[in-house]
Design a protein that fits this description.
Layout (H helix, E strand, L loop, with lengths): L9 H18 L2 H11 L9 H24 L4 H4 L4 E3 L4 E4 L9 H15 L10 E6 L5 E2 L9 E5 L6 H16 L10 H4 L2 H25 L10 H12 L17 H13 L4 H17 L3 H4 L16 H12 L5 H10 L16
Parallel strand pairs: 2-3, 3-5
Antiparallel strand pairs: 1-2, 4-5
Length: about 350
């Protein structure tokens, strides 16, 4: 799922160097003006003839002052050019370390991820003001349990170039680990190992929700300049993922406990290996519907593991884990956890009508 570009032909590398120039032209409206003038003059912008180049030359001269202003506005401090991370302050402080991102500028990455964090962060007041330090690594995304000396969370993503939907998907998953208190799981005992699969499934569900919510917000106020209509890339990506056959809920399962029999059949394998992605994604399908349609559900996951899962025995770990989560959740949100317990057949649905619509 997470592909990294290991080798590139010379032409691709050369083209990548031109991307920042195109980004500057787009950001300052120069490219649009030149393209419009070219169309008016009947000039091909892809393969212009020598005569057409001469026709465009005066337009280029007229645009020269704007190009100079664009270059000046793109200047960054010497410290930034020497490896300082790009920073965005908000409900969550994002800093992105340069290097490895392909054609994407780390400042644009910081803006986009700050935007995504702004969509999700209001549900997690306990993590307001968190600092997330992000770097590239080709092996895949992850978040370290140990914080940095300044208290920042260290996160790695594996996206390259301006694939903002992929950035959103990976970042939302890792941010979910932060707000579900993954750092409390540093010790590796039965309670932690036996429930990690649920956290992975929940964070996959949060990624899907983030793609849908970002799509709506991006349409109104995109954080970076990009071709019109890009907002649909987020919702289309979410739809492609959710339509994969292996993610579908069991056929014929009861609507109020769709994972009961499935969980009974897969419980042991999930506890032995929490990173069985196809199984995680089945669970994520049900959890995504719960997050999407239950009032306050996203806020509810911020109370997972707040006590580090201490004093949970080695027996029925997952039922005890859910009950501990419910006990740590404010009274007004506890029915949300009861719904999750019901999905697995571990409790009856709550009497209150918290709306959950299955896919």
């Amino acid at each position: 799922m997470f592909q990294s570009l290991q080798t590139q032909p010379f032409g691709r590398r050369a083209g990548a160097r031109l991307v920042p120039i195109r980004q500057r032209l787009t950001r300052h409206g120069i490219a649009a003006r030149l393209a419009a003038a070219a169309r008016w003059a009947g000039v091909s912008v892809h393969r212009p003839s020598l005569r057409q180049v001469f026709l465009l030359f005066p337009l280029l001269l007229l645009s020269a002052p704007a190009l100079v202003r664009a270059a000046a506005s793109e200047r960054v401090p010497v410290a930034a050019r020497q490896g300082e991370p790009a920073r965005v302050q908000g409900a969550v402080s994002i800093r992105v370390r340069p290097g490895g991102w392909g054609a994407a500028d780390e400042r644009d990455i910081a803006r986009v991820l700050g935007f995504v964090a702004g969509v999700l962060a209001p549900a997690f007041p306990r993590h307001a003001g968190a600092i997330i330090d992000i770097a590239y690594r080709p092996e895949g995304p992850t978040t370290l349990l140990e914080r940095m000396p300044d208290g920042a969370y260290r996160m790695y993503l594996s996206v390259q170039d301006t694939r903002w939907d992929q950035f959103t998907y990976q970042f939302a998953h890792e941010y979910c680990h932060v707000v579900t208190n993954a750092e409390q799981r540093a010790r590796q005992d039965a309670a932690v190992l036996g429930t990690q699969w649920f956290e992975e499934s929940m964070c996959e569900a949060v990624s899907l929700l983030a793609l849908q919510r970002v799509a709506a917000r991006w349409e109104q106020a995109p954080p970076v300049d990009i071709a019109p209509g890009y907002a649909t890339a987020f919702s289309e990506y979410a739809q492609r993922l959710m339509s994969q056959a292996h993610r579908r809920l069991p056929v014929g399962a009861p609507a109020d406990r769709p994972l009961e029999n499935w969980y009974a059949a897969n419980r042991v394998s999930l506890q032995l290996d929490p990173y069985l992605r196809p199984k995680n994604e089945v669970v994520a399908g049900a959890l995504h519907a719960w997050l999407r349609d239950s009032e306050g559900a996203l806020e509810t996951i911020g109370f997972i593991g707040v006590d580090g899962l201490r004093n949970i025995g080695d027996g029925q770990v997952f039922p005890a884990y859910l009950e501990r989560w419910r006990g740590n959740t404010p009274e007004r949100l506890r029915d949300n956890v009861r719904w999750v317990q019901a999905l697995f057949g571990l409790a009856s649905p709550p009497a209150s009508r918290v709306r959950v619509v299955e896919r």
